[in-house]
Amino acid sequence: QVQLVESGGGLVQAGGSLRLSCAASGRSFSVYAMGWFRQAPGKEREFVATIDWKGTNTYYAASVKDRFTISRDNAKNTVYLQMNRLKPEDTAVYYCGSSPWAHYSDRVNEYDYWGQGTQVTVSS
To answer: Which residue, 39, 78, 86, 123, is most buried by CB atoms nearer than 10 A?
Structure first.
């Protein structure tokens, strides 16, 4: 059983920054890809960013590319999402997901474990 615990969400003004963390336990963190997704009220969960098992390769949604950075520390079993130049449309609950594969993915159904989510609210 994998447990994922997100933290770092909050309220921030447009243009500000937040850093989300996701601490993992329960299986070998360093051999699996990880991803960040978000879900706004009334909308489906959408892809934000993903990173492969080693941290060498990353991939971003077009809406966050050049503003967000995903990274991981395999020694700490933690994945991060640095969010800069935040916009009101970034407001959502952010979830981290653990994939059973080493290669990254932007597909929700390719992740088998999820955290409880952390709220990010960006005011205009």
So the answer is: 86
Q: What is the pLDDT of residue 28?
A: 87
CA distances 68 to 2, 10, 24, 65, Å, are 25, 16, 21, 6
Give the 3-state secondary structure of residue 62.
Answer: coil
How many whole angstroms separate alpha carbon 11 and alpha carbon 13?
7
Residue 85 makes CB contacts below 8 A (sequence gap 6+) with 15, 17, 67
DSSP SS3 for 110: helix
Residue whose pair of structure tokens reads 């243009």 in the numeric block: 15
pLDDT of residue 30: 87
Residue 79 is which amino acid?
A: V
The distance between the two most distant Cα atoms of the chain, rounded to a whole number of Å, is 41
